[in-house]
Amino acid sequence: MSTTAAIPLLGNPRADRVKALARLATASGRARAGAFLAEGPQAVREALVAVAPHRVRTVIATAAALQRHPELGPGAHRAGAELLECTDEVLAVLSGTRTPQGVVAVCDAVHPTLDDVLAPGPPALLALLARVQDPGNAGTVIRAADAAGAGAVLLTRGSVDLHNPKVVRSTAGSLFHLDVVPGADLAETVGRLRGAGVAVLATDGVPGRGSADLDDLLDDAEAGSGPLSGPTAWLFGNEASGLDPAERELADLAVRVPLHGRAESLNLATAAAVCLYASARAHRRRGAAAGALTATLGEIAPGVSHTGNVEHHTPPAPGDDGDAADVGHGAHS
User: Fold this and answer.
1) Are 91 and 147 members of one domain?
2) Which GO annotations describe the biological process of this protein (predicted)?
3) Number of compact structural domains in the chain
């Protein structure tokens, strides 16, 4: 028996429910419903396993898509989401692409705040997007930030709608992996990040703009100094005009991305990926160096910590060896 036989069918593209779902492609429709559409199997899979406050309300897929991606049905069930089968005609109404991928999900629109980002302590890496208008650029930066291990992306007022269908598609599911804060006030955000010990670095990929070279900052980080050696927020500007002088002035440092070939400049998404990965590399190497130092000190002087302090260990009393472990296991039995 087909696994999709008992799934309710949306067959009429002119049905009221289909029209209501299609309105989620508009900003006003999303605002009224408090929801947005995620399209494609990758985005839907990531949405279904995302942690709260993310939630999938409904998964809508063609029969062919459910056969190609059999994990979607059980995934919807585990997430407590409604599962609907639809015709190709209905999906064409809901999809924002010329070649639909067969599945969309209705997801709660989540709007984290800067307080949410800073509550557990400042992330080691963040991205700030100032007045970024292009949906593809915004989504690609979110995806790059996720891949580089950033804890959050913040979009200032005047930026593209975070839940624009093209933004969501361009994130390829990364929207559900990290905090993405819309409508941030840039001056307030920079001030609070600086107060939390986060260095704010500005770049827009335009040659000649910036007082520091990214290659030099990486060299400094190798030596354990400079802004890349600690928590960092990268500030990126509008794709057409870059950062204006007032925005650049807010940053602790304006950074040049070196161009070693004949290209005149880098577009926003490319510059962002380069800078975010520079920070990620610096953080990884610093962590690896600290781990190696700790291991070396442990071999040379087992009683000395990586800080240089002597660690005093009280030997177990006779007969105590293993007792604590036994008690621990018993407590969970």
Assistant:
1) no
2) methylation; RNA processing
3) 2
